[in-house]
Design brief:
The complex is a heterodimer. Chain A has helices at residues 4-18, 27-39, 41-57, 67-75, 85-97, 104-122, 127-143. Chain A is mainly alpha-helical. The longest helix of chain A is centred in the last third of the chain and has 19 residues, at 104-122. Chain A is elongated, with a radius of gyration of 44 Å. The model of chain A has no long low-confidence stretch (mean pLDDT 77). By secondary structure, chain B is mainly alpha-helical. In chain B, 73% of the residues lie in helices and 0% in strands.
């Protein structure tokens, strides 16, 4: 609970900094100081003094934005980025990996990929036999129609 | 921080060249930047040049914008404040008596003349303030930025900002009272 003296002291600070219009005062002070103004003629006198300077300051013209300056500023705004291949792939990847994006197409594609890997893994791998076959084929070619074989 | 920054999605989209996001960023902030710069520098042409430079930097940095250090709006106004400081340092400050006279044949010419002269007087008093005091007053008083946001822009504590504001207003009052005795009545 603040005393009248504390409120008066704060009113003097607020008037000195923000002027006489309560609309410009800090929101945290407004209600308390408005109550002080209501009950204190001296506080109202202080407010009138501050308002005299406000009246002079309020005569300063303020320029606003014109359509021309707005257009000039927007003309210099960044151009849209060109859509490279990454921008096309990104949504697809996002669709595949995000829970919301697990839509039928993505799920089917992922399932197909898994099936392919599984089938490939189940097939017997015979690299030695394949290598042997190709070696015997080469030998057969080497001795085929060899006109000097009898010598 | 990025969760609390309402501009962040727009900045990211602008960095990717999204024209709608660029337009939305401009519509959110251009008026404020021109308002700040025009109040700081005192004329529209300079303010528009500052705004263009501010947004050029936005376009340049949007694609690589790293959230976490400051809100986008804070960064935007920091750039504007610095550009205004640089621009103001490069131009001479005219003495008060060099203020141009306003000439008009309209019936209310004398009233208008007096109003214009007061406005120029205040303009020159603002220009005579140290740059940080002027920035604080323009951000908080004219642009009605809340004190925490303005303190962020100026990289100050709120207490330090309040002190700048108070010194700035006191200096304005002294300048106006000294240079134009007929304004003293308005100030009392």
């Amino acid at each position: 609970m603040r005393t009248d003296e504390e409120d008066r002291s704060r009113l003097v600070q607020v008037l000195a900094s923000y002027g006489g219009d309560p609309g410009r005062w800090p929101a945290g002070d407004r209600e308390r100081l408005a109550a002080l103004l209501e009950r204190s003629p001296e506080a109202r006198g202080l407010q009138r003094e501050a308002a005299a300077l406000d009246r002079l300051l309020d005569g300063q013209p303020r320029a606003g934005a014109t359509p021309e300056i707005r257009a000039a500023i927007l003309a210099a705004a960044p151009a849209p980025r060109r859509r490279g291949i990454g921008s096309w792939l990104r949504p697809l990847v996002v669709d595949l990996v995000t829970p919301v994006g697990l839509r039928p197409a993505g799920a089917i594609l992922a399932l197909s990929l898994l099936c392919g890997i599984a089938v490939g893994g189940l097939l017997p791998a015979q690299p030695e036999q394949a290598a042997g076959d190709s070696q015997s084929n080469l030998l057969q070619f080497a001795f085929m129609n060899d006109r000097y074989a009898g010598y | 921080m990025d969760v609390l920054d309402p501009d962040l999605p727009l900045v990211r989209r602008a960095g990717a060249g999204d024209a709608r996001a660029c337009a939305a960023l401009v519509d959110r902030h251009l008026d404020g930047i021109i308002g700040f710069a025009s109040r700081y520098l005192g004329n529209r042409a300079d303010a528009e040049e500052v705004a263009q430079e501010v947004f050029l930097r936005v376009w340049r940095h949007a694609a690589s914008w790293q959230p976490g250090q400051a809100r986008f709006k804070t960064w935007l106004y920091r750039v504007a404040v610095n550009l205004c400081h640089d621009r103001a340092r490069r131009r001479p400050v005219l003495p008060l008596e060099d203020a141009p006279e306003m000439i008009s044949d309209a019936p209310s010419a004398s009233v208008q003349l007096q109003r214009d002269q007061v406005s120029q007087q205040v303009r020159r008093a603002l220009d005579a303030l140290p740059e940080r005091q002027k920035s604080a007053i323009v951000l908080c008083y004219y642009e009605e930025m809340d004190n925490a946001a303005a303190a962020d822009v100026m990289d100050l504590s709120v207490d330090a900002l309040e002190s700048l504001l108070a010194r700035g207003r006191r200096r304005l009052r002294d300048l106006l009272a000294a240079e134009r005795p007929n304004l003293v009545g308005d100030l009392e």
